[in-house]
């Protein structure tokens, strides 16, 4: 449940214009003083002072098309993929000797007769 509200608000934010300023923020910034608490509320009443803006709040998928046209996005994506592949390769190379050592120890234990008997574990639930 606690993941649902940030998910919905994140999707809402991704569809908004980056230049949009909420009306209550304009009132706060224009007065330069601490406003009454209702200006900070998301639920502004109809009687509250609202400044009309020429820009729209929601621009749809335009933000995503702007990202795909930005060279910085592709540079960040390239860096992320490079680091990801480097770390995966490092983890694999680190675990190969460790796994070979464990395999040698296990095969030695089998040849010494430590695993002669077959052990079975049964799970019986309580009534």
Structural summary, described in words:
With 127 residues, the chain is an all-alpha fold. It has 2 domains: 1-69, no CATH class; 70-113. 54% of the residues lie in helices and 0% in strands. It is built from 4 helices and no strands. The two termini are 33 Å apart. Residues 47-53 have low confidence and may be disordered.
Q: Strand pairing plus helix content: what structural class?
A: mainly alpha
Tally of DSSP β-strands? 0
The averaged pLDDT comes out at 76
From the N-terminal CA to the C-terminal CA, the straight-line distance is 33 Å
Integer tally of domains: 2
What characterizes the major β-sheet? none
Strand residues, percent: under 5%
Choose one word for the global shape.
elongated
Rg value? 30 Å
Range of helix content: 40-55%
Count of DSSP helices?
4
């Amino acid at each position: 449940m606690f993941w649902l509200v940030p998910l919905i608000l994140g999707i809402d934010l991704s569809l908004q214009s980056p230049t949009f300023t909420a009306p209550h923020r304009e009132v706060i910034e224009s007065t330069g003083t601490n406003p009454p608490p209702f200006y900070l509320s998301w639920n502004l009443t109809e009687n509250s002072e609202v400044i009309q803006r020429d820009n729209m709040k929601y621009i749809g998928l335009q933000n995503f098309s702007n990202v795909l046209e930005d060279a910085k996005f592709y540079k960040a994506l390239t860096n992320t993929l490079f680091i990801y592949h480097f770390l995966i390769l490092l983890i694999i190379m680190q675990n190969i000797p460790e796994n070979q050592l464990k395999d040698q120890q296990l095969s030695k234990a089998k040849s010494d007769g430590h695993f002669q008997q077959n052990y079975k574990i049964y799970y019986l639930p309580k009534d």
